Automatic annotation (TrEMBL):
Protein name: Putative 3-methyladenine DNA glycosylase
Similarity remark: Belongs to the DNA glycosylase MPG family.
Class of the enzyme per the UniProt entry, highest EC level: hydrolase
Coiled-coil residue windows: none
Keywords, ordered alphabetically: DNA damage, DNA repair, Hydrolase
EC number: 3.2.2.-
Native species: Dyella nitratireducens
Amino acid sequence: MAAIKKHKKLPRSFYNRDPLIVAPELLNKVLRCHDGRAGRIVEVEAYRGADDPAAHSYRGKTPRTEVMFGRPGHMYVYFTYGMHWCANTVCGPQGAGNAVLIRALQPIAGLDLMYAARPLARNDRQLCNGPACLTQAMSISKLQNGLDLVLGDTCTLVDDGVPPPEQPVRTTRIGLTKAADYPWRWYVDESAYVSKK
């Protein structure tokens, strides 16, 4: 697939808003890494600090959640189920503990590296169709926790001119026991790369 030719890094002001606004606007933006791997965001979930019992930051700042309370535009990476990494973007205002989980990508560049990182994937769809799959495919781990996406040293989020869908699908979040009824998940309706429709 062709590499991204035109792109614009998302400014800090993009992230410095309520996660319920940021999340659907992240759809069709591109997560790009310095080694050429890139994927279009097709599924996200919002987490809203003290207003959200499912958020890691709900009970306040801890060593694990410190990044969530920092400046918007940083990456919050956490370990789950004792085996998987998940990547989030921190949203403003600073101190709120908000984030948006990136749940699925459509691979668009560097697929050879993605397959090397995910040798069990049988096709392009399986490379990044879930939060743990995409971090494996993009080689995102605790090393990227706290990474400034605006400066974009290792990874960044860019706008390559594809707008968010006018009417994204909105559903409840997946795999939660707390606040499972909050409709804070969005995905691109026509995308075959969504983790679950």
